[in-house]
Write a structure and sequence with these properties.
There is one protein chain. The chain folds into two domains: 303 residues, Zn peptidases (Aminopeptidase, 3-Layer(aba) Sandwich), CATH 3.40.630; 136 residues, Aminopeptidase i, Domain 2. The chain is globular and about 85 Å long. A hairpin with a 5-residue loop joins strand 7 and strand 8. It is 30% helix and 23% strand. The strands form five sheets. The protein has a nine-stranded mixed sheet with strand order 1-2-3-13-4-14-20-16-18, sandwiched between helices. A six-stranded antiparallel sheet has the order 8-7-10-5-6-9, covered by helices on one side. A three-stranded antiparallel sheet has the order 11-12-22. Helix 3 packs across helix 13. By secondary structure, the protein is of the alpha/beta class. It binds manganese (II) ion (2 copies). One manganese (II) ion (MN) binds next to loops.
Length: 475
């Protein structure tokens, strides 16, 4: 082949960098593997639409794959090859496969978030108006509110009673279930609304969910429709209106994950930011049997609202998890072992990137943006307007990653969230970097990010999963 190439062509190949479309490079076998992986991924997405559901499904898969909860670990000391996990308040989880090297050498972490933008119920959600019952909400994360009206919605979450009993709620997923919705104004009466800015046409306080309309038969009471709804809730969940105060109820799209495109090359689903990365990371750690450095998969909550709180990446959960692994691995625990572990650790902050969308030209610098189907995205820096508020990876670390990915034929590209000064964003990377961990943002491109129906490329998902496996093994 090379004989037919001109010297300029050869030099060009040797010296220039360009990203590659994996569909062009992949053979039939690889495509089949990508499609098979996506089938499992879609099924997982349908079962895990909230952080709690993700954590619960992750525990199931972990136990099927030989992982043991640290709560029930009474095996003396941790030995290489042992698999353990710890769940944080049912909403975050860390898993580890113990490596041959000691904890002071650091761990290899793939970290992602398992919360997604959605609409939460307020503490006092139920009210009756115009003989209909609606639910007051407060949206969670960065949503474009107009995308969430007139679509079928499901209600997921928990109600915790004063007895401590946790009642699980999941309505809108079965074919026989009702769904809910947020109504919109008919075009005939929307002249004023249509003149408004998109950010104002649908208001946050106006995101009220339609919940019922049949009145209780006793006309002596006020708000009879509300009473009837409370009666139904009481029959099904043994709850009262006050129980909403200690509930975590989330409104999410009711539809299931689908293939998108005549060639079925995309996955369309709610919550792929960041379940696409968290599922790929979870799957990668589940398959590990032996590693040199301890492998950790960290799945956190609350990223979409700044990683705050004791289940978010800013909490001490990760540090405590590593401290526990150190404590259980050595004869005598010293804090300095944990400190050494943190500064010698390396991490892929697995989160999605804004893929170039032909419908929205002009928002990206195409020389640096990520594309659908071009593989894993290495995003050196996040932040906005002068990289402010972001995290920036060190080139020494990126060079190591380039080496292991190139050596293992993992196709990667670069990425950034839009043109300079146009926007930006952050991930959990900075919070782990603050602990001394070497971190880079590393996920795949997504279209329609934060919408009820986000789009990913099947070949990218598969490539990302392969990359995470390589990272655990070779970094
Ligand atoms: Mn994300
Ligand atoms: Mn996000």
């Amino acid at each position: 082949m090379d004989d037919n190439k001109t010297s300029g062509q050869l030099l060009n190949e040797k010296l220039t960098y360009s990203s590659k479309n994996i569909w062009e490079k992949s053979d039939e076998k690889e495509r089949e593997l990508a499609f098979t992986f996506s089938e499992r991924y879609k099924q997982f997405l349908n079962k895990a639409k909230t952080e709690r559901e993700f954590a619960a499904e992750a525990v199931k898969l972990a136990e099927e794959n030989g992982f043991v909860s640290l709560d029930s670990f009474d095996n003396g000391k941790l030995k290489p090859g042992m698999k353990v996990y710890r769940v944080n308040r049912n909403k975050a989880i860390a898993l580890a496969v113990i490596g041959n090297k000691g904890m002071e050498n650091g761990v290899n972490v793939v970290g992602a978030h398992i919360d997604s933008p959605r609409i939460d119920l307020k503490q006092n959600p139920l009210y009756e108006d115009t003989s209909m019952v609606l639910l007051k909400t407060h949206y969670y994360g960065g949503i474009k509110k107009y995308q969430w009206v007139t679509i079928p919605l499901a209600l997921h979450g928990v109600v915790v009673k004063t007895s401590g009993e946790i009642v699980e709620v999941n309505i809108g997923e079965e074919d026989s279930d009702p769904v809910f919705t947020i109504t919109d104004l008919l075009p005939h009466l929307a002249q004023d609304q249509m003149q408004k800015k998109m950010s104002e046409a649908i208001t946050g306080e106006g995101l009220n969910v339609l919940f019922g309309s049949i009145p209780h038969e006793d006309d002596k009471v006020k708000d009879r429709v509300k009473l009837n709804i409370l009666k139904l809730l009481n029959e099904k969940y043994d709850m009262t209106e006050e129980d909403f105060v200690s509930a975590e109820l989330e409104i999410v799209p009711a539809f299931k994950a689908s293939d998108v495109g005549l060639d079925r090359s995309f996955v369309g689903a709610y919550g792929q930011d960041d379940r696409v990365c968290s599922y790929a990371a979870l799957d990668a750690i589940l398959g590990i049997t032996e590693v040199e450095k301890t492998a950790v998969c960290l799945l956190t909550d609350k990223e979409e609202i700044g990683s705050m709180g004791n289940t978010g990446a800013q909490s001490i959960f990760f540090e405590n998890f590593l401290a526990e692994l150190c404590f259980l691995s050595i004869d005598k625990y010293y804090d300095i072992i944990l400190r050494a572990c943190l500064s010698n650790s390396m991490m892929l902050s697995a989160d999605v990137n804004s893929g170039v969308d032909p419908n929205y030209e002009g928002v990206q610098d195409k020389r640096n943006a990520s594309f659908m189907g071009k593989g894993l995205v290495l995003q050196k820096y996040t932040g906005a307007r002068g990289k402010v508020g972001g995290s920036e990876a060190n080139p020494e670390f990126i060079a190591k990653l380039r080496k292991i990915f190139n050596d293992n034929h993992i196709i990667w590209q670069t990425g950034e969230i839009g043109k300079v000064d146009l926007g930006g964003g952050g991930t959990i990377a900075q919070f782990l970097a603050n602990l001394g961990v070497e971190v880079i943002d590393c996920g795949i491109a997504v279209l329609s990010m934060h919408s009820p129906f986000e789009i990913t490329s099947k070949i990218d998902i598969y490539t990302m999963n392969k990359a995470y496996k390589v990272f655990y093994k070779e970094i």
